[in-house]
Amino acid sequence: MSTSDTRSDSGAASRARRNWGPLALALPALLLLVGVIGYPLFTVVLRSLSQPEWGLQNYIWFFGTPVNLVVLQRTFTISAWVTLVCVVAAYPYAYAMTAVGPKARLLLTLCVLIPFWVSGVVRTLAWVILLQDSGVINSTLRALDLGRLRLIRTQTGVVIGMAQVLLPFMILPLYSVMKGIDLRLVQASRSLGASPLRAFFTVYLPLSLPGVYAGAIIVFILALGFYITPALLGGPRSTMLSTLVQNQVLSLLQWGRGGAMGVVLLLATFILLALAGPLMRQKHKQGARS
Amino acid sequence: MNPNSPTRGAAIDLQNVSKAYGSFRALDGVSLHVEPGEFMTLLGPSGSGKTTTLNVVAGFTEVSSGALQVGGRSVVGVPAHKRNIGVVFQHYALFPHMTVGKNVAYPLSLRGVSKAERERRVAQALDMVKMRDFAHRYPSELSGGQQQRVAFARAIVFDPPLLLMDEPLGALDKKLREWLQLEIKRIHRELGTTFVYVTHDQEEALVLSDRIAVFNKGRIEQVGTGRELYDEPKTLFVGRFIGDSTVLRGQARSDGTSTALDVAGQTVTVPRRLDGSDTPVVLLRPEKLAIRRPGQMADTHNRLSGTIAEAIYLGSGSKYEVRLRDGSSAIVRSGLSEEGFRIDDPVELCFAGQDAKLLADDKSADATLT
User: pLDDT per residue over A251-275, tens digit each?
Assistant: First the structure.
């Protein structure tokens, strides 16, 4: 073996060491993920196929029971509405965060983050107080002689409550994309003849879409698995899948059926991600550099 | 785009335009007339008001006071998108989510140009900047020079009667810059559009422009051709900003027609005098100064002693920085055939009085340049 070979070998070895170093840093988190997500997930899948006996009976039951399908569809519908409400509310908010001075930006950021520090149960109970028939909203309406709105135990109430809880997950990715948009591009489009509105729709909006996609996917997926908020704010006509799972597992001790429901929700989410993936990748490539 | 009509540019007229940001006057009474089809360069150091002037004309900045006409019509209060002015930015400002072709077609789409016509004009504009083969690429796949050429095509594709350029070559390396300067000159000749070009690079201004407006501290110091600014600077700032120069300061005595200046014990005489009470200084261009060894001067009155502080071989000749007795430095250029000097050689400089410019002193001219 010549000297140059030796040198290149040791070079390759040091490269290999460099590659393994970062992975070792990720190891604790990786072990945690495998332990607390991977293993339970595996048992869920296993139980859906094995309890009370081996076979597909739990899946046959799931797709053979009309109420399950209604709830599955409703879960997706409510999640879609929550996502839509979040996009509409977060977009101008995130833009405002990029446009104001540092002090106002800090204030706006705090407004997004403070709800994170309050327990979801507490926030949902706050919504109960606001939304119930004798709650703040309805007593105000009554005082103004404007009639009353049915909010608690309706789908609308569930969407409002969930959107509020999930709003930060839409605002933060949107803000991080928006603050990277070069506003001089908007100025350029104005010089080329675009009115402010045209400049927004042809330049700013397309450049902000990666943030919209990222936020929408996070919010939608989190919404699919929501449990506390729909359970407390919703009624029987706004039950979501997680409530049914809880029912099967904790009330009926049907671990197999509950597992099957979880697996169906997981697969539906994977399919959705696979559909959204190409869209996001394409935008990413185009927006790679300004 | 119709390259066959030579006089299709718009005139620009700024009258006493001011722009204040709080107490800071970015523009302080700027008046400037640009002829249709002219190549006008706004030259000055950063913060001198040249870019503000461009932004005012483009409609990105509203004037605080004054009148502004483009093509004979007042555009004060007209939003940028209704001014029909092409703008090329230093940072290219290509839309990253559109291909080169879509970028160039953008102003045409906004104007409702039909698809066939759009394609024809995009191809023509890309041909003009030699970028036609890149129509399907994204801006991120192009080099800086290529991006700027696309930005150029996008700014001229809708036939604006006026094109504004804000240091468009500022981010590019020297060789590319020099080549693109010639391209810009060619396109200006072919289009006949009025060009207004902002730069802080005086060589670039001299290469490109029909006329140059020299900005300093929110005002225009002088407007003229490159030759006028070089040969007849009206202020010390202009004389120092354009080309190399030597400034002589000293105790001045003026009689009826001439001024004598005492520069560290040596007297130079210039056959002119300043009106008013300004302190006179003498400005000399390098080629007006002759450099000799001491004692070789025959019969000139204006001679200054010094030593060589820096010798630069330029190929076509040499450039010397000479430290004079009072510590100031002089810039001299000598031809190939003349003898060479080395650092620390004692030399004498001489010049004819009528070749020297007598200007009012302006200490801030030194500060701005360093």
Answer: 888 899 999 999 999 998 888 888 8
Nearest-angstrom CA–CA distance, A148 and A279: 43
Tell me the pLDDT tens digit for each residue of A141-167.
888 888 888 888 888 889 999 999 999
Domains and CATH numbers, chain B: 12-237 (3.40.50.300), 244-369 (2.40.50.140)
Sheet holding B317-324, edge to edge: B290-292, B346-350, B303-313, B317-324, B329-335
Restricting to A residues 182-241, those with a Cβ less than 8 Å away from any Cβ of B are 182, 184-185, 187-196, 198-199, 202-203, 206-207
Residue B89 is nearest to which of A184, A195, A196, comparing CB atoms?
A: A184
- Residues from chain A that touch B85, judged by Cβ atoms under 8 A, are 191
**Measured between CB atoms, does A280 come within 8 Å of chain B?**
no
**Chain A residues touching B152 at Cβ < 8 A:** none
Whether this model's pTM surpasses 0.90 = no
Instruction: Tell me the pLDDT tens digit for each residue of B143-198.
Output: 999 999 999 999 999 999 999 999 999 888 888 899 999 999 999 999 999 999 99
Phi, psi for B295 (deg, rounded to 5)? 90, -15
Q: Do B93 and A185 touch (CB under 8 A)?
A: yes
Question: pLDDT tier at A15 (50, 70, 90 boundaries)?
Answer: low
Segment B308-312 shows an average pLDDT of: 91
What is the spatial distance between Cα A279 and Cα B348, in angstroms, rounded to a whole number?
75
For residues B27 and B47, give the distance between their C-alpha atoms in angstroms, rounded to a whole number: 10
Mean pLDDT, chain A, as a whole number?
86
Burial, B67: exposed, middle or buried (Cβ in 10 Å; 0-12, 13-18, 19+)? middle
For chain A, what are the domain ranges?
1-50, 65-286
From the list A197, A212, A8, A7, the residue with the least C-alpha distance to A94 is A212
DSSP for B8-63, please give it.
-PPPEEEEEEEEEETTEEEEEEEEEEE-TT-EEEEE-STTSSHHHHHHHHHTSS--
Q: Does ipTM surpass 0.90 in this model?
A: no
- Give A65-286's CATH code, choosing from 3.30.70.590, 3.40.50.720, 2.60.120.620, 1.10.3720.10: 1.10.3720.10
